Amino acid sequence: MRNKVLVIEDHRDLYSLFDCILQFHGFQVTVVSDGTKAIELLKDGTPFDAITLDLHLPGTPGTEIYDMLEKRGDAKKVLVVSAYLGEIKDFEIRGVNALQKPVLSVDLLVDRVREIADQKISALR
């Protein structure tokens, strides 16, 4: 069974790239480009093995989505992806997996998502 990944990202080029890369590496990918739609999808109980989460989204901000996931015990499934180094550092200090955009290494993205989906990681590497 393929691992299911939710990509929450509002920039079309980036979510298309993540979708293509992750599908190529064997993941089943769902893309949502709006924070409010992401909340609805996550609240309906659809299970995901890993979630890439942009922090700046239309609708509900990614920080609120992360807080919701943390409250229900799913924070370990999240890879925060942001263009803002300060935000990345803030999340890393909290022990959250995070990557800065632009993600320059396909292998790093795939490895992080795979490790999260397989639950072979501690909160931070």
Keywords summarizing the entry:
125 residues; alpha/beta; five-stranded parallel sheet; 5 strands
Task: Give a description of the structure.
The chain is of the alpha/beta class. 43% of the residues lie in helices and 18% in strands. The protein is built from five helices and five strands, in the order βαβαβαβαβα. It has a five-stranded parallel sheet with strand order 2-1-3-4-5, sandwiched between helices. The longest helix has 13 residues, at 12-24. The termini are far apart. The mean pLDDT is 92.
Main beta-sheet annotation: 5 strands, parallel
Mean pLDDT: 92
Number of helices: 5
Report the strand count.
5
Any idea what the radius of gyration is? 13 Å
Strand proportion: 15-25%
Overall 3D form? globular
* Class by SSE composition: alpha/beta
Q: Can you tell me the residue ranges where pLDDT is under 50 for at least 5 consecutive residues? A: none
Strand order of the largest sheet: 2-1-3-4-5
Instruction: State the end-to-end CA separation.
Output: 26 Å
Query: How do the helices and strands follow one another from N- to C-terminus?
Result: EHEHEHEHEH
Into which percent range does the helicity of residues fall?
Answer: 40-55%
